[in-house]
Amino acid sequence: MRLSTRGHYGLKAVFDLAQHYGAKPIPLKSVAERQHLSENYLEQLMAMLRKAGLVKSVRGAQGGYILAREPGLIRVGDIVRVLEGPIAPVYCVSEEDQGCCDEADYCITRTVWARVRDGIAAVLDGISLADLCSEAEEAGMCCKEVPKGE
CB within 8 A of 28, min separation 6: which ones? Predict the structure, then answer.
């Protein structure tokens, strides 16, 4: 199973917001520059995250994006599910729609995929944005200062 750039880049962008939590709104251009991502693509991702209630946008000259909740209350799994959909290594064990197939009652591999799904979900749901910020700080990968004009 492989995440798309939506999940990968979206997590990087939201992590950037978490590193600046409590400050003024962060312009998307700043996030894009720091994370080496396309600003246009980030706009699409932020729209999805805003609709899901994970980030808020602030309009105006001093506008930008902020987290909708404290970093400790947002899990990596929340972000991945918004951007990638339900965790599902195969269709028949999706978190949301465990669609039945003709072989569901006697498919031994279905239990393998259900365990893979549960393991991935446990890891993603076990890490908050606050955890990532703490890990980054311990590793000396703290955020770069946001210039005062932003």
Answer: 39, 42, 43, 46, 64, 65
pLDDT per residue over 26-67, tens digit each? Answer: 999 999 999 999 999 999 999 999 999 999 999 988 899 999
Q: Hey, what are 96's tokens?
A: 């949301």
User: What are the structure tokens assigned to 59, written together?
Assistant: 């309009």
SS3 79: helix
The 8-class DSSP code of residue 58 comes to: E
67 - beta bridge partners? 55
DSSP H or E run through 66:
strand 64-67
pTM: 0.86
Residue 43 to residue 39: CA distance in whole angstroms: 6
